[in-house]
Amino acid sequence: MGNAADFGTSPDDVQFRFREDEPVDHGTVTVDSALEQTNATAVRIEPGDDARLLIPFLDRLALIEVNFPVFTDGRGYSAARILREAGYTGELRAVGDVLIDQLSHMRRCGFDSFAPDRRLDEEDAKRAFATWENVYQHAADTRFGARATIAEMRHGDSA
Amino acid sequence: MYSYDQYDQAMVDARVAEFRDQARRRLEGKLTEDQFKPLRLMNGLYLQLHAYMLRVAIPYGTLNSRQMTMLGDIADKYDRGYGHFTTRQNIQYNWVKLEDAADILADLATVEMHAIQTSGNCIRNISSDHFAGATQDEIIDPRPYAELLRQWSSFHPEFSYLPRKFKICVIASERDRAAMRLHDIGIQIVKNDAGELGARFFVGGGMGRTPMIAPMIRDFVPLDHLVTYAEACLRVYNRYGRRDNKYKARIKILVHELGAEEYTRQVEEEFAHLIEQGVEPPFAELERIRGFFTDPPFQDGPKTVDRSDPDFAVWVDRNTHRHKHDAYVSAVISLKPVGGIPGDATGEQMRLMARLAKEYSFDEIRVMHTQNVVLPHVRIADLPALWTELHEGDLGAPNMDTIEDIIACPGLDYCSLANARSIPLAQRISERFDASGKTGRLGELKLKISGCINACGHHHAGHIGILGVDKKGKENYQLSLGGSEAEDVSLARITGPGFDEDGVIEAVEKVTDLYLERRAEGERFIDTYRRLGMEPFKEALYG
Prior knowledge:
The complex is a heterodimer.
Chain A lengths: L15 E2 L11 E2 H6 L5 E4 L17 E6 L6 H11 L5 E6 L6 H6 L4 E4 L5 H8 L20 H6 L4
Parallel strand pairs in A: 2-3, 3-4, 4-5, 5-6
Antiparallel strand pairs in A: 1-6
Chain B lengths: L5 H22 L5 H9 L3 E3 L4 E5 L5 E3 H14 L3 E4 L5 E6 L4 H9 L17 E2 L14 H11 L14 E4 L13 E7 L5 E7 L12 E7 L3 H15 L10 H8 L1 H18 L5 H8 L19 H10 E3 L5 E6 L10 E3 H14 L3 E4 L5 E7 L3 H10 L14 E2 L14 H14 L1 H5 L4 E4 L13 E8 L2 E8 L11 E2 L6 H18 L6 H8 L2 H8 L1
Parallel strand pairs in B: 6-7, 7-8, 16-17, 17-18
Antiparallel strand pairs in B: 1-2, 2-5, 3-14, 4-5, 4-13, 8-9, 9-10, 11-12, 12-15, 14-15, 18-19, 19-20
Helix pairs in contact in B: 1-2, 1-4, 3-11, 5-9, 6-8, 7-8, 15-17
C-alpha cells in the first residue's frame, strides 16, 4: 500500500472543489491508522469502513476521502452523510469511479470535492451539478436550513 | 387522487431532460454500456430478449382516465398496440426502441407520469391495496402514506446505489391484498389503543430464489416519524447489505443473517440518531397529501341489481368487491380472458377502460398486483351498463381469484432471464378449466407461474405455484402447493419431481380434483391443503 505520503489523491487530482480554504497537501491514512495516529489530519474511507469510528477525531481532520472503487457501490453516500451529520466541516472528497451521473447525489450527501479516476467533461459536469433545482428529501445540503426541501417550501412557516 | 404541483412537475421534467442528456452521451460514446445501464434502468428501460422494454410507474397502482388514455396511445404509437400490466401495479411495453425512449418519457410527463425508479438498485415504485379508499375493511386510505414515501424515495441521494432493488408496500387493512409481507419493507397503517394512527413495519420479506416472509420489527411508528423510520431501515441496509453476491444482496438476507432482533436494534439506533437530525417532512405535508384522497361525492342509490342474466350475475358475484358506501362496489376488470396473455391489454382496451372510469368510477382506476384493473367506485345501479360495455370490449371475464386468474411472468417469450415459458402454460390452463367447467366449483384458487427462480410470477405465494426450470435443455415445471400472499401469508412447498408442459397441466388437474373430492364445507383449496398436508396430494401426483 506504500507509505502515507503517496497514499490517496493529491490536490492536483481534484477536478471540482466547492471550498475556499487551501487543500491539504499530504497523503491520507486508512481509517485503522487514523484511529492510532493522533496527528493524522487526512484519512481515506473504503466502502467497508465504518465512518462512525472517526467521529471522536473529526476536530483534527481536515480531509476525508471516500473511495468509490466501483460507482455502483453506494456505501460512500451513507458515509458522507453520517460524517456531515456528526458535524464534520472539513473537506469531504469523493475519489475513484466518480462519474457525471453520480455528482448531484454526491454533492447532496455532503461531498465538496471530487477527484475522479478519469477527468470528466466540464460542461457535462456543470449540467449534472445543476440537475435538481429543488429536492424532495433531507440530506447533508438541507442541514440547519441551508436549503429548504420541497415539502418545506410548500408549507412555508409551518415547516 | 394525487395531482402534481409545480414542484412535482419540475422534478419529472428535470429527470426527462437528464435522461435525454444521458442517452446523448451514450450515443456520443462518453458513456460505456456498463456506465449507461444503471442509468437507463433507473428510468425503467431494460434490454430484453428481442427488444428494449420500458416499465412505466403507476404509483400505488392509482391512475385517472387521462393517464390510462395516454398509456393506450403509447401502446399504439411506440409499441405493437398493447401493453402488459405487471405484479408491481405498473405497466410495461415490450417492444420499445431506444431512440424513442426519451420521447415516451416526455409524453408521459404531460400526464404526470414517468418511469422513474421502476428498475435498478434503488427504491422502486411503492405498491398498495388496490381497493384503497373504497373498501369497507380499511381503517384509513393508505395511499397518502405511500405518496409521502414516493416523494421521499424519488431521487434519494443516499439510496440510489443500494446493494439491490428495494420494494415498499403500504396497506391499512387487516386484509392483505398487496402481498405486503413479501416486500423489502411492508407497512401496515394501524390504530393503537389510544386511537392514534401509526405504522407497523415488517422488514425483509421477498420472493426470488430465497423466499422469506418479513418479520415485524416495530409494531407502531408514530406517523410523524414515518419517513425517519424508513430512512433508518434503508441506511442500515445500504451500509451493511451484502454486495459480494447479487443473489444475497436483498435486505431479506441481511435481516436473516443478522437476525431480526439485531437488525431491529441497529435500525432503532439509527432512528434515534435521525430523529435528532430532523429528516421528517413537516406534518403539514402529510395533511396536504391527504387532501387529495378525500372521498368522491358518493350518492345514495339502489343496493341491489337485476340478476336475471346469469352471465351478468356470475360476473357480479366474482368480480365485484364490497364498498364502504352501500350503493357502490369496486368492479374488477379481468385482464385474463380465457386463453389470453395474463395482464395484457390493447391500446383500444386501455382507452375503453379510461372512458368507463370517467363515466362510472369518478375518473379513477387501479391496477392490481394480480395484473387486473379495478374501477374502485361503481354505483350498483350502473353495473349492468358497465358489464355490457366490458363484455363487448372482451374485458368481461368473470374470473377474479379463480384458477383462470393466473399471475404469470413474461417468461421465455420475452425475458432474457427466463428458463421456461409461462404465458402458454397460463393460456392452456385457463382454457382447460374453462372448458371443463370446474373453474366455478373450485372457487378461490390462486395459481401463479414463474419462468425462472427469480419468481416474478410469485409462484412461492400461489395456492398452486408453478416454476419453470431448464432441465437438460428442455422446459420442466415444478409444482408447489400451499403458498399465500394474503393475510394468511405462507410459502408454497414443492410437491416432488417436476413435469413437462403437458404433465404439469395434468398435475394441476389432479390436485384440484383431490381438493374437490376431499374438501370440507366452506373450505378453499388452500384450507384443504393446510388441513390435509402434502401427503395425499403427493399420493395423487406420484402414487
